[in-house]
Amino acid sequence: MVAIVDHRPARAIHPLHAVLLAAALPLFLGGLLSDIAYSRSYEIQWSNFAAWLIAGGMVFTGVALLWAFIDLFRAGRRRARAVVCFVLLLVTFALGLVNAFVHARDAWGTMPDGLILSVLVTLAAALATWSGFSSFRLGEMRLGEM
Fold first, then answer.
1. How many domains does the chain have?
2. Which of 12, 68, 136, 146 is most buried, judging by how many CB atoms fall within 10 Å of its CB?
3. pLDDT band at 82 (very low <50, low <70, confident <90, very high)
4. What residues have CB less than 8 Å from 116, skipping those under 6 apart?
5. Distance, CA of 105 to chain centre
6. CB 19 within 8 A of CB 126
7. Is 140 inside any structural domain?
8. How far apart are CA 14 and CA 53, in angstroms?
9. Rounded to an integer, what is the distance from CA 66 to the centroid of its chain?
10. How many H-runs (helices) and E-runs (strands) does the chain carry?
11. What range does the domain containing 34 cover?
């Protein structure tokens, strides 16, 4: 009996989907950094920056979520990975929406809820981006006859 390792790569992520996933993460990270700056300096403009960065991240996350939903039906053997990516994007979108509503408050009313939500949204966006880009497989081993 011989072990045969199949090294065919999985279907790569579509370039447009990659751009959408990759664009949301730095926007949410910028919102988090702006929230940190606001919590330390009390300058209202940092809160405004955070609100706009979160809104931009929501736009890209929403379109990436739509793409992931469509990809659920085209996934084939990668269905489990597509479901994980879709669920993580859905969590990111839901947390981002709540975060956007919190940042619509007045000045210091966003703290500390906005900062905590920004941390959670950034982590969720990082996980969603990672799961979307992890389309490579190391190889499948199967046993063959000699």
1. 1
2. 68
3. confident
4. none
5. 25
6. no
7. no
8. 25
9. 13
10. 4, 2
11. 15-134
Higher pLDDT, 38 or 12: 38
Residue 13 phi, psi dihedral angles, 5° rounding: -70, 145
Over range 39-61, report the average pLDDT. Answer: 96
Alpha-carbon distance 82 to 88, whole Å? 10
**How far, rounded to the nearest angstrom, does the alpha carbon of residue 46 sit from its chain's CA centroid?**
23
Decide if 145 contacts 127 (C-beta within 8 A).
Answer: no
Residue 143 lies in a domain: no
Q: Is there a domain that residue 9 lies in? A: no
pLDDT at 136: 47
Q: How confident is the model at residue 23 (pLDDT cuts 50, 70, 90)?
A: very high
* Span 100-140, pLDDT tens digits: 999 999 878 899 999 999 999 999 999 999 998 886 454 44
Closest CA to 28 of 142, 129, 104: 129
CA angle (116 as vertex; 110, 120 as ends), nearest 5: 130
- Contact present, 93 and 75 (Cβ < 8 Å): no
Q: What single letter denotes the amino acid at residue 126?
A: A
Q: For residue 93, give the nearest of 19, 30, 34, 28 by alpha carbon.
A: 28
Is 56 among the domain residues?
yes
